[in-house]
Amino acid sequence: MAETSGYLPIAEHGLIGDLRTVALVGSDGTIDWYCCPHFDAPSVFAALLDTERGGCFELAAAVPARTKQFYFPDTNVLITRFFTEEGVGEVQDFMPVREADSTATVTATDTDTDTDTVIDGEAGRHRLIRRVLCVRGTVPFRVRVAPRFSYGSDPHTLRALGDTVVFESARLTLALTSTVMLEHDGRDARAEFKLAEGEAAVFALDQVGDDVTPRGCARTEAEQEFADTVTYWRRWLAASRYRGRWREMVHRSALTLKLLTFLPTGAIVAAPTTSLPEQPGGERNWDYRYVWIRDAAFCVYALLRLGFTGEAEAFMRFLTRHVSSCDGGPSGPLQIMYGIDGRTDLPERELDHLEGHLGSAPVRVGNDAAGQLQLDIYGALIDSIYLYDKWAQPISSEQWDNVCALVDWVCDHWDQPDEGIWETRGGRENFLYSRLMCWVAIERAIRMAHQRGLPADLPRWRKSRDTIYRRIMSRGWSEGRRAFVQHEDGDVLDAAVLMMPLAKFISPTDPKWLSTLDALTQELVSDSLVHRYDPSASPDGLRGEEGTFSICSFWYVEALTRAGRIDEARLAFEKMLTYANHLGLYAEEISRTGEQQGNFPQAFTHLALISAAFNLDRALG
Question: 0.85 cut: is pTM over it?
Answer without folding.
Answer: yes
